[in-house]
Design goal:
single chain; 4 helices; 121 residues; elongated; mainly alpha
Length: 121
């Protein structure tokens, strides 16, 4: 445990420190991905796969939101990928699993890479 003070640490929204909203195109792509994940989740039986897919959709919307702090946005983008992958793992070799993995690799990962340029700049 460190003895340093946390007084200088800040997590408040600070546009001067580069804590700015995502570009409109990236935010729109993330919201679109969230809607598509919700569509996939709706076709899943109630259970762990649906739960993780819904959490992935929430994470995508959180990442895209304008008023989200940078630290929360960074956590949400990681949660998005993790939860979607977990949903696919829980879907147990069904068509839904294939659809979730296809969405992850063909749509979500490219969008998260693009968003990462803004988030980790």
């Amino acid at each position: 445990m460190s003895n340093r003070t946390r007084a200088a640490d800040t997590t408040e929204h600070d546009p001067e420190a580069g804590d700015e909203p995502l570009s409109p195109d990236v935010a729109a792509a993330l919201r679109d991905v969230a809607d598509r994940i919700d569509g996939c989740a709706g076709s899943l039986p109630i259970g762990p796969a649906r739960h993780h897919a819904r959490r992935a959709a929430v994470a995508a919307r959180t990442t895209a939101a304008e008023d989200v702090r940078l630290a929360d946005r960074r956590m949400a983008i990681g949660t998005l990928v993790t939860e979607l992958r977990t949903a696919a793992d829980e879907a147990d070799a069904t068509r839904a699993q294939y659809d979730l993995l296809q969405l992850l690799y063909e749509d979500v990962l490219p969008v998260t890479r693009e968003a990462s340029a803004d988030i980790y700049a």
